[in-house]
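User: Quick sanity check before I run a bigger batch. Here is a single chain. Can you write out its predicted 3D structure?
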Amino acid sequence: MPINLPYRKSLLKNENFNINYCATKKKNVLKAYHAWGKKKLYGREYDGIKRISYLIDEEGMIIKVYEKVKTKTHAQDILKDIGELD
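Assistant: Done. Predicted structure follows.
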């Protein structure tokens, strides 16, 4: 599924989330954030985009890495971690 950045940005705005959101398919950026690499599916190994997220503070420092993103709980995991920062 392609990244629909305009939709995601409008969703954040409509839900009053005051956060910056970044998503990309540019391979050089994916590699820099370790989001490109070996994956396995049905025993077949291939290179692809990994499900990985970063929580980045106002100064641009990575404060949390989510290497095993579970789509069902990821939003709650992030909100919990943000709440613990206060």
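The longest strand covers residues 36-41.

User: Great, the batch can go ahead then.
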